[in-house]
Amino acid sequence: MTDLQLPIFLLPSVLSLLLFLVLIRRKQARFNLPPGNMGWPFIGETFGYLKHYYATSIGEFMEQHITRYGKIYKSNLFGEPTIVSADAGLNRFILQNEGRLFECSYPRSIGGILGKWSMLVLVGDMHRDMRIISLNFLSHARLRTHLLREVENHTLLVLNSWRENSVFSAQDEAKKFTFNLMAKHIMSMDPGKPETEQLKKEYVTFMKGVVSAPLNLPGTAYRKALQSRSIILKFIEQKMEERIEKMKEGVENLEEDDLLGWVLKHSNLSTEQILDLILSLLFAGHETSSVAIALAIYFLESCPRTIQQLREEHLEIAKTKKQSGEKGLNWDDYKKMEFTQCVISETLRLGNVVRFLHRKALKDVRYKGFDIPRGWKVLPVISAVHLDSTLFDHPQLFNPWRWLQGSTARGSSSCPSIGSSSSNYFMPFGGGPRLCAGSELAKLEMAVFIHHLVLNYQWELANDDQAYAYPFVDFPKGLPIRVVKLHDSI
């Protein structure tokens, strides 16, 4: 091909590209898009958006964009044109219109590591069916009759292992508690057993990859996580085969009291679907709850007044049980933990375990004069609403009293009761049809853990540490604490 022929040969491709760009611009011109900056080609502003920051803030990136463009702005994130929302009304609108105007749309790398049948990435009827299975197993009756007892047993197992004046990672202890609980709850695995510890080791590697850059290259955390995922799934499948064989032989009760037995008995899911379901529930039930408990320990350490009121509430419960001769918490005891629920709500509001969600517009949508084009990604940023000073007074302040019944969402003493105006803004577990199926279990775990923690220990930070968002929440030093045992507190 001569030098003269080359431009002629490339001319149709160049013209096609120019035509494509013109059509895209014309299409976008039809829309009144929010203001914003699309950043660099393909990567857009992703690196700036994911840069770590204090978990009790929204980060410099969000602050600058909200100041410059407002609470609704456009960007290019995760390789796609995106509408970012720090607006309480739009966030609620997005979640309430799940499946009609918007649908879940996580980056492909998330589905690659959690599995295509993971509840986090499923949409439509399949997500609904998986969620129904989870809700049936996490029913109110089961929480009362079975899970409360298991939560307390695993709490005491962890707390009773703490040695006087020792220094240890509160974050690791919280993770130990939630992992052991979920392993028992899902597959009847006992804590401390070799198979449980081996599974925990693989799971730690798996989790590091879930929250890392999706680079499937030798030596990367993502590649190691994929390898651990394969090992974990083989382990779960082996447990399934053993359980099925025992059922056939009549050795095992068909009403097996764990999730694996329940799914085998009550669902028609394929092996692959069961494996991804169990893996995703292990992920969801372990990681978010452990972070929330670590955050509670962190916030409470710097708020003695809160600890004092918590102790008064839990001492009253403990004294009543001692007088009646009862052992172990029951559901009535849990319902008496009213101020504890305020502490839980404030921990979730200020710490924001889940900071934003991934959605996609199914149709062209107009909101407050702005257009959200069909196919665009939408990121409702939950943390930005929870830390909005127009909705919550002094939002960076840990103030459980703001949630007391009868207060306003803005009030300095503000726990959202059902029907309160604050519940419109407070969405730590998401909302709409995809509201977290394990939300009640998570609050139960936190309440029981706090009950035994404040009755039995005083603690202080052994080293300066702070929660950061990467955007997942983590303590860089593991939240090292030193504990002192309380004696004769009841």
UniProtKB/TrEMBL annotation:
Binding sites annotated in the UniProt record for heme: 436
Cofactors that this protein relies on: heme
Entries under PROSITE patterns matching the protein: CYTOCHROME_P450 (PS00086)
Membrane topology summary: Single-pass membrane protein
Residue intervals passing through the bilayer: 6-24
Reaction catalyzed: cholesterol + reduced [NADPH--hemoprotein reductase] + O2 = (22S)-22-hydroxycholesterol + oxidized [NADPH--hemoprotein reductase] + H2O + H(+)
Keyword Membrane: yes
Family annotation (Pfam families): p450
InterPro entries assigned to the protein according to its UniProt record, in alphabetical order: Cyt_P450, Cyt_P450_CS, Cyt_P450_E_grp-I, Cyt_P450_sf
Keyword Zinc-finger: no
Cellular localisation: Membrane
This protein's UniProt keywords: Brassinosteroid biosynthesis, Heme, Iron, Lipid biosynthesis, Lipid metabolism, Membrane, Metal-binding, Monooxygenase, Oxidoreductase, Steroid biosynthesis, Transmembrane, Transmembrane helix
CDD domains found in the cross-reference section: CYP90-like
GO cellular component entries: membrane
One MF term in the entry's GO annotations: heme binding
GO biological process entries: brassinosteroid biosynthetic process; brassinosteroid homeostasis; leaf development
PANTHER family for the chain: CYTOCHROME P450 26, STEROID (22S)-HYDROXYLASE
Family per similarity comment: Belongs to the cytochrome P450 family.
Name assigned to this protein: Cytochrome P450
Organism this protein belongs to: Manihot esculenta
